[in-house]
Amino acid sequence: MPRPRCERCQRPLAHCLCPLIPHLDSRTRVIVLQHPSETAHALNTARLAALGLVNAELRIGEVFDDLATLLTTPGYRPVLLFPGDEAEVLQAYGQGDDLPLLLIVPDGTWRKARKMLYLNPQLEALPRVTLGAVLPSRYRLRKAPEPGAVSTLEAIVQALNVLEAPAGFDALLRPFEALIDGQIAAMGAETFERNHGQG
C-alpha cells in the first residue's frame, strides 16, 4: 500500500517539507514549464520553487496551448532562462521603471528542454537570458553533467538573487537541502561517501 503523501509538497507525510517552504514575494514573475517526466522525480525542485514563491506558477506538459496568453501577461517582459550564444547575462533591475521579467524556466534534462523549445516555437523565439557566474550546485547526490549545471530550483534562486539584489531568495533552498540530507541519511554516510564523496 502506498505511503500517504502530503498533497502540497507531494512528499510522504513523515517527510513533509511544507514547514521549510518559505512564502516569498518577488517582482519577477516565474513560470516553470516542467516536462512530464520530471514530475515523478524524488527531488522535484521545480515544484519547490513554485510553492515557495508567491509570484510563480508551475505548468506541466510538452506543448503549451495557452503560451500566447501567458507570454503577454500585462506588466512583464517575457524572457527564457536558457543558455546559448545569444543569451544575455542577467543583471540587477535598474533604478528606472523597467518592466520586471516574466522568467520562463524549462524544467527537464537538456535534451527534453530543447525538445520543449522545438515543440513550442514561441518559446524558441523569446529573448534568452543566462546566469553570469554560476555558483556550484548543492545537489550532492548527482554528478553535474557539465560544469555550471545546477538544479532548476538553484537556477531560479540564483537568477532572482541577481535580478532583485539586495533581496535574497536563498530561503527557497531550505526544503531542497533537507530533502538531500534525508536521502543521504537514508542511504547511509558510508554509501554516500563511496558513491558521491569528493574523489
TrEMBL record:
UniProt GO molecular function: tRNA-uridine aminocarboxypropyltransferase activity
UniProt record similarity statement: Belongs to the TDD superfamily. DTWD2 family.
DTW domain ranges (all copies): 2-188
Organism: Pseudomonas soli
InterPro entries: DTW, DTWD2/TAPT
Pfam families listed in its UniProt record: DTW
Coiled coil region boundaries: none
GO biological process: tRNA processing
SMART domains for this protein: DTW (SM01144)
Protein name as catalogued: tRNA-uridine aminocarboxypropyltransferase
Keywords recorded for this protein, A-Z: S-adenosyl-L-methionine, Transferase, tRNA processing
Top class in the EC scheme: transferase
